[in-house]
Every structure is written in structure tokens, then in C-alpha cells.
Write a structure and sequence with these properties.
Strand content: 15-25%
Oligomer: single chain
Radius of gyration: 18 Å
Helix content: 40-55%
Order of helices and strands: HEHEHEHEHEHEEEEH
Number of helices: 7
CATH architecture: 3-Layer(aba) Sandwich
Largest sheet: 7 strands, mixed
CATH topology: Glycerol-3-phosphate (1)-acyltransferase
Length: 230
């Protein structure tokens, strides 16, 4: 009998957790001071309706998830229990998900993203997932760019005050109430032809550099905004 109630309680908590996470995130979002900075290339691509693939670091997700419907972006979310919570939060924000990762269900997840891309959604990929190494880009995003014909845009978030989950491999963070949060979309990587090797280490290096530069730009914008307010 005790095992039965434990199982029921666990099932109930699993159903409640995504709603709690979503409401908490929305409550924090309502207090954030948001700043958006988009490269002119990105703005022109959106106006022209060009296919777009977003690349971001795993730890930035809690600062970016609310943006998915704004950019009509879909995400690949892992099939883990934590992934189930994140997937529901993404859907509650009004975006779409494809479940899987590079280590589990990767092929089906890629197919799901391709289907969503054909429906006009822009895939967003945490390029160093699902378990790192941190800030080391994997080949999946390049395969996706080749198949969709979309250029890869570095997408980053940064803030001046956050809770950092130090024990997580990706050093994920959640901006605190009234934090200044900067969203930056940088210049894209060159378009990839079908014959490009997605596993070419030079591609990974170029994307890592683009994300590093975008993150540095967002950090500089945060620091200049904070400095000018004093």
C-alpha cells in the first residue's frame, strides 16, 4: 500500500512540476529588464523569410526559453525527466519541441526539427549538449543547417544578477528578480553546402568563436547599461 501511494505521489508531482516551473519562470520574467540586440543581418533574414537556425549554449536556456515563440523557434529537448519538464515549459510558452538528444533518440529528434522547419519554425539547438563538454559545439547543428538551408545564428543571453547552478555540468543560471537581461543575436556563420563535413573541427571552432564573441558583446552591453545607470 505504501508503494502504491508513493507511486501516485510521484506521478502527481511529475504532472505538477512543469506548471510550477512555468509559473515561477513567468513571475521572474515579469520583473526582468529586457534588452534586445539583433544583428542587421539577422533582422534582414527575418524580414525576407529566410530559413534560420539558432545556436546557443546549454547554460543559457533559462534566459532564452521565453523567446522561442517570439522568433517562432522550436527546440530539441532531451528525453530525460528534467527534459520532460523543460519540454512542457516550452509548450506552455507557445513554442514547439522535438524530443531527443545526440545520445538518445537523436535521429528521430532531428527529423522532428526538420518537419517543424518545413512548417516555418526556426530550430534552436543547444550545441554543447546533452552532457558537454561545456562550450564545445557538436556536429548536429551543422547537419541541421545543411538540411534546412538556414544559416546558423549565435543566440545568447546574459544578465547582471542570477542564481547559478554550480553543480550542473553546464553551469546553468536563472536571472534573479529585477535582473537586467540582455538577449543578443550575432552575425551568422556562412551558409553550408550539402557536401560540407558536419564533423569538420573548423566548423565547431568557428561556431564556438561566434558564440564567445556574442556572449562577450552581451556582457559588454550589460556592463555599459549598469554603468550608465549610476
Amino acid at each position: 500500500m505504501r508503494d502504491f501511494f508513493k507511486a501516485r505521489l510521484k506521478s502527481m508531482l511529475r504532472r505538477i512540476a512543469p506548471w510550477f516551473a512555468f509559473l515561477l519562470h513567468r513571475s521572474l520574467l515579469a520583473t526582468w529588464k529586457l534588452e534586445f540586440h539583433e544583428s542587421q543581418t539577422f533582422q534582414a533574414a527575418r524580414r525576407a523569410g529566410e530559413p534560420i537556425v539558432f545556436a546557443h549554449w546549454h547554460g543559457d536556456e533559462l534566459g532564452l526559453v521565453f523567446l522561442l515563440p517570439h522568433y517562432k523557434s522550436c527546440a530539441m529537448v532531451s528525453t530525460s525527466e528534467d527534459g520532460s519538464i523543460m519540454a512542457k515549459v516550452v509548450e506552455l510558452y507557445g513554442a514547439r519541441v522535438s524530443r531527443g538528444s545526440s545520445t538518445r533518440g537523436g535521429v528521430s529528434a532531428l527529423r522532428g526539427l526538420l518537419r517543424l522547419a518545413r512548417d516555418g519554425w526556426s530550430p534552436s539547438v543547444a550545441v554543447d549538449g546533452p552532457k558537454g563538454p561545456r562550450h564545445r559545439a557538436k556536429a548536429g547543428v551543422f547537419e541541421l543547417a545543411k538540411l534546412t538551408g538556414g544559416r546558423i545564428y549565435p543566440l545568447v543571453a546574459d544578465c547582471d544578477h542570477a542564481w547559478v547552478f554550480r553543480k550542473s555540468w553546464n553551469q546553468a543560471y536563472l536571472p534573479k528578480p529585477w535582473a537586467r537581461v540582455c538577449i543578443h543575436v550575432g552575425e551568422p556563420l556562412p551558409a553550408l553546402s550539402k557536401d560540407v563535413d558536419a564533423h569538420d573541427p573548423k566548423l565547431a571552432e568557428s561556431l564556438e568563436l561566434a558564440l564567445t564573441n556574442a556572449k562577450r558583446h552581451a556582457r559588454n552591453l550589460i556592463e555599459s547599461s549598469v554603468g550608465s545607470s549610476h
